[in-house]
Design goal:
single chain, alpha+beta, Homing Intron 3 (I-Ppo) Encoded Endonuclease, Chain A, 4 domains, two-stranded antiparallel ribbon, 10 strands
Length: about 240
């Protein structure tokens, strides 16, 4: 609905149509000679193009605009009035019927454009990801909000289809366990000693790190000495 007050003098009512409130609009409807525009009836195609402002770039719709910025157009089918988006009407009459399940995407990103070369029939997913809505921004994100990368090892898919960060989920689980007083979960696995190469059993806690790094205390001392002296380890 248009915003503002009625254009009639001393009338403060809200605009209903054609710069008039509902009361004065009905009054002016009885006297169409006072209208400044010409109504085109019967020919939907002629009436449609009378509301289009063509240029070298976009063909802008000058008729009714929805609250979302898309043009609206009413037409007659089998004696009944129907209403649709202006860009969909333009695509169907100049390009062809829109396949089932596809949406019309504006390649020029101008919502009230009806030029057929600026329109493309795509899936709903493609139409959303081409925009600037939060789903499109999340799809283009390479890191989570805490800076962890979305790679193959650090990404999982939630039940609703969204991506999740493995590191953030693990840290949240550890914080919850500490809050309720539960010891971190451990699992038994095998590791190779970085000094002698021997395999030994080690218990990994939930963050994937174990307290034991080497197979023996002697190898541990040699490892700390090599790190302090910046010398390579003699692996057997």
């Amino acid at each position: 609905m248009p915003k503002g007050t009625c254009s009639e003098r001393r009338c403060l009512n809200r605009v209903y149509a054609r710069t008039w409130c509902a009361k004065h609009y009905r009054k002016r409807w009885a006297d169409k000679a006072t209208w400044t525009t010409v109504l085109i009836k019967g020919d939907d195609e002629r009436r449609f193009w009378s509301k289009v402002e063509k240029s070298k770039g976009c063909w802008l719709w000058t008729g009714t605009i929805s609250v979302y910025g898309y043009g609206r157009f009413s037409f007659t089918v089998d004696g009944k009035r129907r209403e649709t988006s202006a860009h969909r009407w333009s695509y169907e009459h100049l390009v062809g019927p829109i396949p089932d399940g596809l949406h019309i995407d504006h390649l020029c990103r101008v919502r009230n454009c009806v030029r057929p070369t600026h329109l493309e029939a795509v899936t709903c997913r493609t139409n959303v990801l081409r925009g600037v809505a939060p789903p499109a921004q999340n799809y283009l994100a390479t890191h989570c909000k805490h800076g962890h990368p979305f790679d193959d090892k650090n990404t999982y898919i939630r039940p609703n289809g969204n991506r999740g960060c493995v590191t953030c989920r693990r840290l949240a689980s550890e914080r919850h366990q500490r809050k309720i007083g539960v010891k971190p979960m451990t699992r038994l696995t095998f590791a190779s000693c970085p000094v002698c190469g021997e395999r030994f059993k080690v218990r990994l806690i939930s963050n994937g790190v174990g307290p034991q790094r080497t197979c023996s205390r002697t190898c541990g001392q040699r490892l700390r000495f090599a790190k302090t002296m910046h010398e390579p380890l003699p692996v057997r």
